[in-house]
Amino acid sequence: MVAQLRLGPAGERTEMDMVAAHVLVFPCPVHGHITCMLYFATGLLAAGLHVTFLHSDHNLRRAGRGDDAQLAAAASSPRLRHVYIPDGLPVEHPRDVGRIVELMESLQTKASVAYRSLLASLVGDAGAGATGGFPPVTCVVADGIMSFAVDVAEELGVPALAFRTDSACSFLAYLSLPRLLELGELPFKDGDDLDEPVRGVPGMESFLRRRDLPSQCQDCDDPENDPLLQIVYGFTAHSGNARALVLNTAASMERAALAHIAPHMRDVFAIGPLHAMSPAPAAGGAGGSPWREDDGCLAWLDGQADRSVVYVSLGSLTVISLEQFAEFLSGLVAAGYPFLWVLRTDMVGASQNAAVQEAVAAAGRSKARVVEWAPQRDVLRHRAVGCFLTHAGWNSTLEAAVEGVPTVCWPFFVDQQINSRFVGAVWGTGLDMKDVCDAAVVERMGGEESGEIRASAQALAREVRRDVADGGSSAAEFDRLVEFIVELSTTAVAAINDEE
Fold first, then answer.
1. Same-domain pairing of 374 and 455
2. Is 264 tagged catalytic?
3. Is residue 461 domain-shared with residue 476, that is, in the same domain?
4. Same domain, residue pair 312 and 163
5. Which keywords are on file for this protein (predicted)?
6. Of 31, 33, 275, 382, which one is the catalytic site residue?
7. Whole-prediction pTM value?
């Protein structure tokens, strides 16, 4: 359970203090970001704060929820409500990974206008009277990749924090872009050795290679003028303007990276893994996923031997070719273990769905189960799961770390490249299958080094669980964050009262 707000030496918080703190939580409208920040909202609710969770109308539509359903679901907590704004894109826009830049641009130029209007209506007496008894919004915690959300809040007199849903190590790599350019480590040239060490990211000089840098650093010829890379660096550096940076990570996993980030921020809170501090995310929100979880896969796992199943999931955005699919399948079959595979209908391509299903069926139904989406937390903690073949997204990396499940990483893009390097070279909890899709590597999941990897994974799990338990670093940081928000809120309420 999320640590409750504890009493400091100054004495108890009054009920008025708790009521005064009302946080607007605004994630980027992408599945992994929404899920992470729903867990964060759950922690705020457990600490006694009011929470308004802001979605895009598109995510509500594709989750099959309308206004009435949202209101009914939100009633499950009297201090939680879900609201939404348009993301600015046409209904038919795919909003897939290939056009993610268009989504970000639309949020910046169009959704920001609706956001400003909404936030203004939720601040002050008008907001308090028009929103079902909720107090005025006194603090914003916005996704750090949407820097406009911090700026708009501060312009309206609402203190704002930046929340990054990726790892501290990837945040530090983005923050180090000027240093990488200064040292000539970017851009890459044709024929450059991708295994060449990178010296420009502090604390990672002994193990970081060119191929481990986030994908935006690798996919541009002119970093100083590349629009995407400049956007990524811009919103990373902009976090220093927010009242604080909040990261879903634990000191036991990323202590060094956190120390190098801290001098560039006004304050830093490492409060994760959030999913391990809460039994379930805040109810009533659209998680941004159009796929329904297949709970039947848990019953299938019940029938398998302990640590015998390979769980395969490459996240909500990864796309692969039919050839890459075949390579994965070949490795899984050769490894000889039963496997549970999450295959989204849009992952290989709609035109290939029949071929994909036939190939999996040929592997033997008794040893394979394919689902469109799975309850991943429950799957990873199941006794039958012995290994996780993953894209090394940060949510998945944290979930595997908490459960002590060894991983084989096939990173797809953005922060996944550096996350997978930490898995293989720093924590020693898995294999990093980067830049290749190799059946032989997949087959090695049960190889000689598996015992050592499993021991490292279980050792890390013990450390992370201590971090989130009472008295642990993450639990203490979450309490400090709640106190910080309450103090900001008290100041904000006083300012509102002074204006009356």
1. yes
2. no
3. no
4. no
5. Glycosyltransferase, Transferase
6. 33
7. 0.91
Tell me the C-alpha distance between 373 and 316, whole Å. 9
Averages of pLDDT over runs of 10 residues in the chain (500 residues) are 35 50 96 93 94 90 49 63 92 80 88 96 61 84 97 97 98 95 87 91 97 83 76 93 98 98 98 89 57 89 95 90 86 88 82 66 73 94 96 97 96 93 97 83 68 95 97 98 96 70
Token output for 346: 């849009």
Q: Which amino acid is residue 344, in one-letter code?
A: R
User: Is the CB of residue 389 less than 8 Å from the CB of residue 355?
Assistant: no
In this structure, are 480 and 375 located in the same domain? no
What long-range pairs does 412-415 form, CB within 8 A, spacing at least 24?
412/314, 412/315, 412/317, 412/318, 412/319, 413/97, 413/215, 413/317, 414/166, 414/170, 414/214, 414/215, 414/216, 415/166, 415/167, 415/170, 415/214
CA gap 432, 437 in Å, rounded:
11
Catalytic residue among 143, 226, 432, 467: 143
389 is in which domain, residue-wise? 296-465
Domain match, 361 and 257 both: no
CATH number at residue 105: 3.40.50.2000
Same-domain status, 252 and 331: no
List residues bridging with 388 in a β-sheet. 311, 407
Residue 25 pairs in a beta bridge with 53, 141
Instruction: Give yes or no for a contact between 348 and 327, defined as CB atoms under 8 angstroms apart.
Output: no
Residue 219 lies in a domain: no
The β-bridge relationship of strands 160-164 and 245-247 is parallel
pLDDT value of residue 446: 60
- For the chain, how many structural domains are there in total? 2
Question: 344 is written with which tokens?
Answer: 């989204």
Q: Output DSSP code: residue 11.
A: B
- Euclidean distance between CA atoms 316 and 31, whole angstroms: 7
Confidence at residue 365, expressed as pLDDT on a 0 to 100 scale? 60
* Judgement on whether residues 460 and 488 belong to the same structural domain of the protein: no
Whole-number Å distance between alpha carbons of 71 and 57: 14
Q: Do both 311 and 252 map to the same domain?
A: no
**Does residue 175 sit within a domain?**
no
In the three-class reduction of DSSP (H, G, I as helix; E, B as strand; rest coil), residue 16 is classed as: helix
- Contact by Cβ (8 Å): 440, 333: no
55 is catalytic: no
Helix (H, G, I), strand (E, B) or coil at 408: strand
Q: Which residues pair with 374 in a beta bridge?
A: none
